[in-house]
Design goal:
The chain contains eight helices and seven strands; from the N terminus they run βαβαβαβαβαβαααβ. With 259 residues, the chain is an alpha/beta fold. It is globular. The relative contact order is 0.16. It binds NADP nicotinamide-adenine-dinucleotide phosphate.
Length: 259
Amino acid sequence: MDLGISGKRALVCASSRGLGRGCAEALAEAGCALVLNARGAEALENTAAEIRAAHGVEVTAVAADITSEDGRAEVLAAAQDVDILVTNAGGPPPGQWQDWSRADFIAALDANMLTPIALMSALMPAMMARGWGRVVNITSQSVKAPIAQLGLSNAARTGLTGYVAGTARQVAPFGVAVNNLLPGAHDTDRIAMLDANIARAQNTTPEEVRAGKHASIPARRYGTAAEFGAMCAFLCSQHAGYIIGQNILLDGGGINATL
Ligand code: NAP
């Protein structure tokens, strides 16, 4: 399918690896010029070079912490007037509900709620003025079904979801479609870290944790960054202008719910 976005410019945050990279690859395949971002410069430059070589699109790499004001300013300076915004950042650390302090919550809200909101605030007015834009926020399945050890993520991402529900309907009349993509378990470094954490707590191995989780998912496996990226690119496509303020779950059937 031709996604109809060849020549558009996209900012994909937190994209040197994992789900962000999957989105960047799929948008590059659709012909978009990219601004990529991550904190680690070397991995980011390698990813940028690989995407340029594979897809022949222009790729600008900005090594910066997207959750800090200075980092965002650097990224935004390179990404003025993008047509497509994919927000993403690392997820909050796991832990116990009794242990989280106010400072822990502020950090999680800053990274996973206020950062995507700041990016939308900065970039959507120009999209609206041009009459076309797409925003995809990478959130989490925890918005639909809480994950016990990820209470900081449950809280921050649900806040973002409420903001998007209201805002998406205000920018839609100007041709800007905003939606959230909710990853269930996907095979990335983040899930490997979480599995290792559970293995330590349960005195078992990460491989056993992984096998148990695969067995609990109807698709019997973790998702891939490429599958995730393909859905992201579709939501950024010309075909998705009537999908507004939705929360699209990609979880292999893991959440047992009718809606
Ligand atoms: P990942 O494999 O750990 O990759 C994270 C990417 O984000 C890397 O490129 C990393 O590069 C970059 N990054 C992290 N913090 C950043 C920051 N402050 N500023 C700029 N770049 C940053 O993670 P992932 O699995 O792709 O997860 C992406 C998001 O989806 C996370 O918020 C995660 O919680 C959420 N999620 C993932 C899953 C899953 O199963 N994978 C499920 C639910 C939700 P640097 O470290 O060099 O900055």
